[in-house]
Amino acid sequence: MIVANITSISGFLLMGFSDIRELQILHALLFLAVYLLTLASNLIIIIITTVDQHLQAPMYYFLKHLSLLDICSISVTVPQSIDNSLKDDGYMSQGQCILQVFFFTALAWAEMAILTVMSYDRYAAICFPLHYEVIMNPSKCQGALIAVWLSGCISGIVFTIATFSITFCKEKIIHQFFCDIPQLLKLSCSNDYLGVIGVTTFMSVMAFMCLTSIILSYIHIFSTVLRIPSAEGRSKAFSTSLPHLFVVSFYLSIGTFAFLKPTSDSPTTFDLMISIFYTVMPPILNPIIYGLRNEAMKAACRKLLLGGQFTKKKIILILLFMAE
């Protein structure tokens, strides 16, 4: 890959993982395998939670949208990185970079929001089982999902406007495999990046409020679960709560570390691995964690893979959902 002075060009140059051609091909193949695995696993969750009559509770309704978010989020960064590696060309136009920043930040916030909603769902199901159907009725679930997607769009718009109001006066070289906001901020020669800092601070406060809500929900959940006399009841409650808690903890810890660590002019392998952990790993882990620890999900997967349970009408309904 030839690095030229592209200060005056509207686009950016993504350095990726390596300049060695063989390693670029290896990176592309690994990312392609991960991408296809992620698409397949999340599509399976979307399919079975759409057509299986035993998986129509609010928990699975939110899980279906979490899988949709995961498909969208990994599609923002990974296919472009694969294409760049195969072509040995890291150039990305400003328009492509703007779209990537928008969708990346929008989907990241939407994932945080839906994890918060899912924690409230578990709180209502375990702490108020007799009133659960009233608390999480279909209209409230739909309203919560609308709020998730709408808040994600607002977050993406605000971050994108703030980021690209910066005057880029340095060589437009990004030491990442996608348009990473901290890397973009390094290209500014003035204080006009303070707008991004302000937006980031505000969104961090909102994320802290979500985290507080999640923590309070799980304090009540574990307090209630420990009072359940039946060991089987406690096991069932933990089996639906602990995976969600693990996903939230992983998502927040990796994301917080990635955005708080100082950026470097010559990123190490560790820096690139961290970026993979918060961009690629969550969409892979979510279906594995929720699928392997939930007996109903495993039974539905077995029916899907072994039983041929889906009619032509059901498949059409799934495709219509994906197109919305």
UniProtKB/TrEMBL annotation:
Coiled coil: none
One Pfam family this sequence matches: 7tm_4
Entry keyword annotation includes Transit peptide: no
Primary location class: membrane
Topology within the bilayer: Multi-pass membrane protein
Membrane spanning stretches: 25-48, 98-120, 141-168, 193-221, 242-260, 272-292
GO molecular function, one term: G protein-coupled receptor activity
Subcellular localization(s) per the UniProt record: Cell membrane
This protein's record includes keyword Transmembrane helix: yes
Keywords attached to this entry: Cell membrane, G-protein coupled receptor, Membrane, Olfaction, Receptor, Sensory transduction, Transducer, Transmembrane, Transmembrane helix
Residue span, G-protein coupled receptors family 1 profile domain: 41-290
Gene Ontology CC annotations of this record: plasma membrane
Signal peptide from the UniProt entry: none
General function of this protein: Odorant receptor.
PANTHER family: OLFACTORY RECEPTOR
Stated family: Belongs to the G-protein coupled receptor 1 family.
Designated name of the protein: Olfactory receptor
Organism, scientific name: Chrysochloris asiatica
Lineage summary: Eukaryota, Metazoa, Chordata, Craniata, Vertebrata
Gene name linked to the record: LOC102838898
